[in-house]
Amino acid sequence: MSTTVDLEAEVAKLIVESLHLEVQPAEIAPDAPLFGEGLGLDSIDALEIALAISRRYGFQLRSDDERNHRIFASLRSLAAHIEQHRTR
Amino acid sequence: MPGRAGPPRARFPMPAELPLLGRAADAVLVRRTAGLPAGQAEAITGHRFLAEVALLSARLPADGAPASVADDAPAAGGAARHAINLCADRYHAILGFAAALARGHVTLLSSDRSPRRLRELAAAYPGAYALCDEPIDDAPLPVVPVSSAPQPGGMPAGATAPNPAIPAGRVAAIAFTSGSTGVPVAHRKPWGSLVTGAGAAAARFGLDDPADPATVVATVPPQHMYGFETSVMLPLQAPCAVHAGAAFYPDDVARALRAMPGRRVLVTTPLQLRSLLVAAEGATDRAAGERGGSGQGEEGQDEGSRGTGGLSLPPLGALISATAPLAASLAEAAEAALGAPVLEIYGATEVGSIASRRTLAGPDWLPYRGTTLRLDGAGEAWAAVPGLPETALADEIALTDSGGFRLLGRRADMVKLAGRRTSLGHLNRLLNAIPGVQDGAFMAPDDLERNPAARLAAFAVAPGLTAADILTALREQVEPVFLPRPLLLLPRLPRDAVGKLQRGTLDSLRRGALSGVPAFP
To answer: What are the boundaries of the signal sequence (chain A) (predicted)?
Structure first.
């Protein structure tokens, strides 16, 4: 499923704002890893992002989703997951 | 320095050997929901567990010499073989630990599974192998895959596997703390100390009645000392079962709890508890709103659910929190929402869990059975735990007349976040060592111990560098949880006449940079 660039930008803004990151949303490369070597997010951030996503898009993230690694692999994959599951 | 070990003090009577499985073999150790319809769980008994331990331990690499707590260098000649247990599924983690233990191999507990940390461990523990239940990229050491096939019919008729007797003094696991210099410090866990600790915790939390077995759902990884004690050692030694699957996000936790029968005990952290409560509130808000409770309701609402939204929580027997002090406001909200007492564990990686309290009952902690605390002449607190050398604590405490203690604060400049510990001095040295940084300082905000989402702040004078440059340099050496937010660049640091940093000024700058941060709840 393809995701609009608009949603990627919106999710980037959500991440930067909810985590108070030192980067501009536009600086998050859509294909770069969000965790570890890329943006350097950690498990505290994962919980914060999950809360922000549930508030904004009306669904809950889960860890036993087989694609979980891929969902958080990059901004693009996270946005695609949101596009598929959003209820608002 | 905290974590320093003294000579063994009071001797606690300890049998020479203790069985791997300290409970009835026909009882349920683990309940697993993965791959099953919502609300259902597969029960794994001690019989099946022991049979799978025998199968897995036969597949492990050749032994070294079993380690005893008296050994020094881990890499000394003839040292034990070490297993890095990376299993994500909790049953696999228990199985891997038990199989290694049965062979005399020492489990290394590392919740940091970054390639860099694995390379460090592989170098520090020659001959180490990894136990994995998921593929691992570029593993810097041999990998032994761990799996367990569901066996609905139980063990083949007549099959019995031995319950290995483990010497109480054998080092079963090694846990790590960051250490004040950033070099991880190893803390050896003899089998006897782990078994007595599990027994003391089970007695304290009412998890010791075979007639009323509870099921533990833990949100903390089995590779962290707190998660290891509560979700690996407890089901091995106390009459309770543990949920096998991942329970990290609020929705995971809610679904796992709903699928567990009987008395449910949630083992979690302040951060995850806060997320769970916010998500449960949000679900209620959604259900009340015009959109109704749609979206997450496909699993159906199980028995006894609370709340009306997608994130409904069943009644709990108890909730246990550790890794950071729990704010009374959060404990109060949790008791109201979950209808269960909120209990806290006090512990440290060096000594394990040693005391508990009910948060709303007041500030006093009651030490576990067998644990004694004392203050030395310098006011430093020492904990004597059965089976371990007496160990200095990182916190300042005051002993109470009733045999308990109160926490007065963290010693020196230690900071603890997400169950990890470091010192501001160490972070400041790293910051000031970055080429281009002329002056710099980390600051722990006042609410670091109360606000689960709090982070360290840092300030730097570094003309020619951006905050992103500095963060990139820090990221090479600092665990992500300790990276500063915000990191503010200043023309100079606000210092008073004697050069001491003006904390008030720094804190206003920090608050300014974070304005708009939602506080709990």
So the answer is: none
Taking an 8 Å cut-off on Cβ atoms, the answer to whether B468 and A54 are in contact is: no
Class of B415-513 per CATH?
alpha beta
pLDDT for position B517: 47
Q: Is the pLDDT of residue B233 over 70?
A: yes
Which of B247, B271, B514 has the CB atom closest to A44's CB atom? Answer: B271
Put simply, the answer to whether A44 touches B514 (Cβ < 8 Å) is no
- A23: chain B residues, CB-CB within 8 Å: 468
| 3-state secondary structure labels for all residues of B35-52 | CCCCCCCEEEEHHHHHHH
**Per-residue pLDDT for B187 more than 80?**
yes
pLDDT in tens, B336-363: 999 999 999 999 889 999 999 999 999 9
Domain A5-85 sits in CATH at: 1.10.1200.10
Burial class (CB in 10 A: 0-12, 13-18, 19+), B131: buried
| Domain spans, chain B | 17-149+163-286+308-342, 415-513
Q: Residues of A with CB below 8 A from B249's CB? A: 46-47, 50, 60-63
Q: Least CA distance to B311: which residue of chain A?
A: A60
Note whether A42 contacts B480, CB cutoff 8 Å: yes
Average pLDDT over residues B258-286: 83
What is the architecture, at CATH level 2, of domain B17-149+163-286+308-342? 3-Layer(aba) Sandwich (3.40)
First to last CA, chain A: 18
Strand partners, B145: B132
Q: Which amino acid appears at position B118 of this protein?
A: L
